[in-house]
Amino acid sequence: MKRIKLLVLFVLFSVCPGFSQISISISSSHNRYINFEPVQVKITLRNYSGHSLNFGNNKNEGGYLKFHIKNSNGNEIRAIEKDFNPVSNLVISAGIVKTITLSLTDYYPIQGHEDFEIKARVGHRRLARDQLSNPIHLQIRNGRQIWSRTAGIPTAQDESIIQTRTCSLNVFSMQHGDIFYLKIENQDYVQSIVRLGPRIIGIQPECDIDALSRIHTLVQTAPRLFKHRIFDLNGKLMRETTYIYESSQPKLLRDSEFGTIQVNGGKIAQEGIDYNIKKPSASTEEMQKKDVEGKKTKSDEDGFFKRTFKRFFKD
Fold it and tell me: What is the CATH number of domain 17-140?
């Protein structure tokens, strides 16, 4: 009878993630990404080992985090740098949860019209075996260009060759509707991809470049609401203002003499009066904050398996 009990417990330890000394999960905020857009993933690590795990400053001293990425043809995507280890210098105390957010496109050549399956694997020299995460499936697609213009990069040297970048406004198909995005590139690289907002049928977005090579976008983000943004040629957001439709529709207006651009029509909207920004629920934010700070966790699995142990070893 004891052999049967031990066998059952061995099976439970083998197949249930709650019995692993460290658990790992991976998630992403989107399942469809624009080609050349940063693919952001969040890794959640939970230490059940009863000991503090120091991952050291390289993979040989402590532990490592690796990714297994396959495209739709089943081909493995290799890391750009062989020794890439995002958990260097990480310490996870016993019973603590840590989250790591990173852009996979900084370390793996994930691009093109492809589907990808992504898993994460964590290992440590003090643990008997590595732990593999759940898989996530992502699609990378190209958008459709609806506006484009090339602008010169301002420099202090008047005699140097003028470097240029091409700015384009594009539409991209998501699972639950289309979105607009800004793309900035030169002949060799895509400098930036910026999501601007949902595609709302009826009013087309506007985009223009002023005399200082700043990019202006005006996109309707909700009924009667418009978002005016100003970017530099690196895609950095310099200013953002929300307008509301009142008497007339907000539009970009260029001064032909000075090359300046401003919004004409509508009025500047006030948050809390003309619109409200939907924020994450307090419980979600608190959980994420406490996870990062290192809150000790106790899952329902723990209670279930403790009751299981008592049942098996009770006389």
Answer: 2.60.40.2550
* Predicted confidence (pLDDT) per residue in 184-242, tens digit: 999 899 999 999 999 988 788 999 999 999 999 999 998 889 999 999 999 999 999 99
Do 52 and 296 meet the contact criterion of CB atoms below 8 Å apart?
Answer: no
CA-nearest of 194, 198, 147 to 37 is 194
Cβ partners under 8 Å of residue 36, min gap 6: 105, 111, 183, 190, 193
Cβ atoms of 36 and 191 closer than 8 Å: no
Q: Where are the domains of the chain?
A: 17-140, 143-268
pLDDT at 58: 60
Query: pTM score, two decimals?
Result: 0.76
Structure tokens at 67: 């990714």
Q: What percent of the chain is helix, strand and coil (3-state, nearest 5)?
A: 15, 45, 40
Cα Rg of the chain, angstroms? 26
Query: CA of 251: how far to CAs of 209, 216, 226, 273, in Å?
Result: 14, 11, 9, 22
Tokens of 156: 């202090």
